Amino acid sequence: xxxxxxxxxxxxxxxxxxxxxxxxxIAFMSADWLIGKAKPSSSEDVDNRTGGSQEPYHPTLGxxxxxxxxxxxxxxxxxxxxxxxxxxxxxIASGFWQATAIFLAMGIMILCTVAFVSVFTMCVQSIxxxxxxxxxxxxxxxxxxxxxxxxxxxxxxxxxQKAINYCGPYASAxxxxxxxxxWAFYTAIGGTVLTFICAVFSxxxxxxxxxxxxxxxxxxGKNLICLL
Length: 228
Fold this sequence. Notes:
Elements: E1 4-7, H1 8-29, E2 34-35, E3 60-61, E4 65-72, E5 77-84, H2 95-118, E6 126-127, E7 130-131, H3 132-153, H4 161-167, E8 180-181, H5 183-209, H6 212-219, E9 224-227
Parallel strand pairs: 1-9
Antiparallel strand pairs: 2-3, 2-8, 3-4, 4-5, 6-7
């Protein structure tokens, strides 16, 4: 018989697992890993509403995508265009970034799988006599290691020609040059830290769902068990 068991700690672990997976996925897909040096406004960069020059634009560069400003000569205005600069994996600007993409993708796939499974932990608490929380916690720890490897390798690719075009001639491995780090990089770091917190907290979720109070509720014949 399926017992729906909801506790404060298990629900918090589930929500945190989902948030971490989405945060890492959004960061990976974003082009805001590097913020390039400001591009000075030209005589064509005129704000139609105020008649004044627009602020200098900062292009951004991601692992496989970028955001830049393109000119519409017919309308004398400029729009921001974001999208992948690499049509396939081999066109990613640096071998280090290719490795980063692989490690991050593997970590995110594991996190998304755990996030999906975590939704069903209210009904299923074990798989082949092993706690599903412990299995998911182990997978989250492995995913965290993949994410760390990807984040360590990413700065090694700052010396590639693509990064130099955005960050100036002084950019090199682990040196930003004229660039600064964007929100996507910090989000990926924060998500990695939260991944390990989830891995540790999964043990607390397992303890909460197998506590004496839960067993008492099951023995009383209750199918829906909610505990703080």
